[in-house]
Write a structure and sequence with these properties.
The complex is a heterodimer of chains A (101) and B (346). Chain A is α+β, with helices and mostly antiparallel strands and 101 residues long. Chain A has helices at residues 2-23, 79-94, and strands at 24-27, 31-36, 39-44, 49-53, 68-69, 98-100. Classes of the chains: A alpha+beta (101), B alpha/beta (346).
Chain lengths: 101, 346
């Protein structure tokens, strides 16, 4: 039983880790972001190319410097803002500014 | 590219050109800064490292190092390392003659380095006529060394009347070496002004290049050809001059200018020995004038939305009028050829 539980426990932990890793997103190593008056300015040195995001102060510039879940946003963001940010994150992933970990 | 946000003004440049020294072992006839001997009173190592700190604080994403030949500066790798310690991307424009396997090995360990090796012709004689005897072979050797690493490497070619017909071959050469091609605009500054008439591409060459560029999406231009950009390349880069809006230039002596092609007293934005980088960026009247620059004489042009009047530096050097509109834009090239045909017909 103990062994089995442990096995189950490991399995659950492993599954949880896998799920979290697949959903984790982070700024691409070739990209940078900084705060501007309109929101965030993303820079991809591979182009180079820029992306201007009118996010205001919703997202800190260093927010995706660490791995985040796809649906994770700063505290205090409203549901409608979350919806907009989710679309924005999808766009950043498509354009290569963010990448899944 | 959102012009709306660009015109709102950035809190600091996205990238900048830093000419770290005027010293160069070559005397290229098109050199924009008349490089050769080291300038008097170039920034010391301590001053250069302090500037890196300021660039980091300002949030500058990338520094494009040029000169002169950057690798002539004994402390250049120290300056690079300081940039990299802050995550600042660096792109080095070099003539390639000082690139050694040891240097490449040191640079190759860093993912924040990109290198452009200057080469001004697909044929040895074309390149060496501009850059000096033996330079073609040295540059090719440097490209081969760099191509064997993970350093993003490009061949950088300044478009002149002599090499205009070789640009497709340059593209093939770059591909065969496993690197990309970047073509830069020849502008009449530095020795380029002295040799302008003998090196400037003709209007028909510029139009042919514009057509070729439209079909060559992988060729980069550093946004120097937006005045010639066709619809096909819209969206690949800027459609207006980025000077003082997205970029600026720092000279070897620590003076700041809107761009590398306007390094004269008339366009000096400030001196880093007396003011901070951020202070100059925020308060320079020269920078303010570039941010509000509108080329009204071009507003009726059908291509205005594609180039917004083109390069003010070329307008300044050729017409002494920063507001005058780019004398070598695509529209004016077409008009110039049409005028000549009419004259010949008459």
């Amino acid at each position: 039983m103990r062994k089995s539980r442990l096995k189950n426990s490991q399995s659950t932990a492993s599954a949880g880790f896998t799920k979290m890793a697949a959903a984790g997103i982070q700024l691409h190593p070739s990209c940078r972001a900084r705060q501007e008056g309109f929101g965030l300015l993303f820079y991809d040195c591979r182009g180079p190319r820029l992306l201007f995001a009118a996010t205001g102060t919703l997202l800190p510039a260093d927010y995706y410097g660490t791995v985040r879940a796809r649906d994770e946003f700063p505290a205090g963001v409203s549901d409608s803002q979350k919806q907009a940010l989710q679309k924005f994150v999808t766009q950043l992933l498509e354009k290569g500014f963010l990448r899944e970990q | 590219m959102s012009n709306k946000y660009v015109e709102m003004g950035m809190r600091s440049p996205v990238n900048l050109t830093w000419e770290v020294t005027l010293a160069c072992n070559l005397r290229c006839s098109h050199c924009l800064s008349s490089s050769g001997e080291k300038a008097c009173n170039e920034l010391s190592t301590a001053e250069a490292l302090d500037l890196v700190e300021q660039l980091h604080t300002a949030g500058v994403f990338q520094v494009n190092f040029g000169g002169g030949e950057p690798f002539i500066r004994p402390d250049f790798e120290e300056i690079l390392a300081a940039c990299h310690s802050h995550g600042i991307m660096t792109c080095i424009s070099t003539n390639g003659t000082l690139i050694t396997p040891e240097l490449v090995a040191r640079l190759g360990s860093n993912r924040l380095v990109a290198i452009q090796v200057s080469l001004d012709g697909a044929k040895r004689e074309t390149c060496d006529a501009v850059r000096g005897d033996g330079v073609f072979d040295a540059a090719i050797q440097a490209v081969k060394l760099l191509a064997a690493t993970r350093i993003p490497t490009s061949i950088n070619t300044v478009l002149t009347t002599q090499n205009a017909d070789e640009i497709p071959a340059m593209h093939d050469l770059a591909k065969s070496l496993g690197v990309s091609l970047r073509v830069s605009r020849f502008r009449p500054s530095g020795r380029g002004a002295d040799n302008w008439e003998s090196l400037r591409p003709s209007p028909s060459q510029l139009i042919a290049f514009s057509d070729w560029l439209a079909a060559s999406g992988d060729v980069r231009t550093g946004d120097s050809f937006f005045s010639l950009t066709t619809q096909e390349r819209q969206g690949l880069g800027l459609n207006l001059c980025g000077a003082a809006k997205l970029t600026c230039c720092v000279s070897p002596t620590g003076h700041m200018y809107p761009c590398a092609f306007l390094q004269s007293d008339r366009f000096e934005a400030g001196d880093l020995r007396t003011s901070s980088f951020q202070e100059i960026w925020d308060t320079s009247e020269i920078y303010a004038s570039f941010r509000s620059l509108r080329i009204h004489s071009c507003e009726e042009c059908t291509r205005f939305d594609q180039c917004h009047g083109g390069c003010p530096a070329v307008a300044w050097h050729l017409k002494n009028d920063i507001n005058g509109g780019d004398p070598e834009c695509l529209e004016r090239c077409v008009t110039s050829i049409a005028d000549n045909q009419l004259k010949e017909a008459a």
